[in-house]
Specification:
CATH superfamily of the largest domain: Probable inorganic polyphosphate/atp-NAD kinase, domain 2
Largest sheet: 6 strands, antiparallel
CATH architecture of the largest domain: Sandwich
CATH class of the largest domain: Mainly Beta
CATH topology of the largest domain: Tumour Suppressor Smad4
Number of helices: 5
Number of domains: 2
Number of strands: 17
Strand order of the largest sheet: 6-5-16-13-8-9
Radius of gyration: 19 Å
Length: 253
């Protein structure tokens, strides 16, 4: 039986052209009931697709038609069904963020890469950090801080000088962004089961926003983050180019 492939693409002209060519060649099935979803674009579009289809339990195979492609495979129109049949699967659990704002509202969102807190005013943020209910850092003065999954450890976390995490490590990276005090504090490695709470100190004077994979909440006073094992994102990679191999290779460039 042939694979039932559902295609989707970003709005970029190069992705739309690829969508037209691939659907003409291989047909196009509805995502509901498909065997695999092929996403055409960059990493941003891949994250959107994973979030949008998280309830379908269908694996997603990305092909790079964007500017960044860490989660994507090389683009080729040839022998696509064979590539999909041979692909390696990585299962990613996202983070769940619960962000409370100054008006008392609580906003929840999932993040495949990371949850970040960033200052939105001219002055540095002041954060207190609790891990599993225990105060670990009474004051971090910084431009921001983030909690990253292994899948997201090469994204914003790596740019902020955080560690790259092996995909099967069951570890989260807590990383500061431009820390002023303690000046040399870069972050911590935490077990995947840990619950991290950020309290925003002097939130009126030093406003902070929280962001979960580009879903933003402004004027937060408290943000609670933990891994969500009940949600599984299935991502497909060409053999020898899986997520674990990419994470290792990235550390030697």
């Amino acid at each position: 039986m042939s694979l039932r492939i559902a295609f989707c693409a970003s709005r970029a002209p190069i992705a739309q052209a690829a969508l037209a060519s691939l659907t003409n060649r291989y047909g196009d099935h509805a995502e509901q009931g498909a065997d695999v979803i092929v996403a055409l674009g960059g990493d941003g579009f891949m994250l959107q697709t994973l979030h949008r289809t998280e309830e379908l339990a269908v694996p997603v195979y990305g092909m790079n038609r964007g500017t960044v492609g860490f989660l994507m495979n090389a683009y080729s129109e040839h022998r696509l069904p064979e590539r999909l049949e041979a692909a390696e699967e990585a299962v990613i659990n996202p983070l769940v963020m619960r962000a409370q704002t100054v008006d008392g509202a609580v906003h929840q969102a999932l993040a495949i890469n990371e949850v970040s807190l960033l200052r939105t005013g001219p002055q540095a943020a002041r954060l207190a950090i609790h891990v599993d209910g225990k105060l670990r850092m009474p004051e971090l003065v910084c431009d921001g801080a983030l909690l990253a999954t292994p899948a997201g450890s090469t994204a914003y976390n790596y740019s902020a000088h955080g560690p790259i995490l092996p995909i099967g490590s069951d570890v989260l990276a807590l990383t500061s962004v431009a820390a002023f005090r303690p000046r040399r504090w870069r972050g911590a490695l935490l077990p995947k089961r840990a619950e991290v709470t950020f309290e925003v100190l002097e939130h009126e004077k030093r406003p902070v926003m929280a962001e979960a994979d580009s879903q933003s909440v402004r004027n937060v006073v408290r943000v609670v983050i933990r891994s969500e094992p009940s949600v599984e994102h299935r991502v497909l990679f060409d053999p020898g180019h899986g997520l674990e191999e990419r994470l290792i290779r990235e550390q030697f460039v």
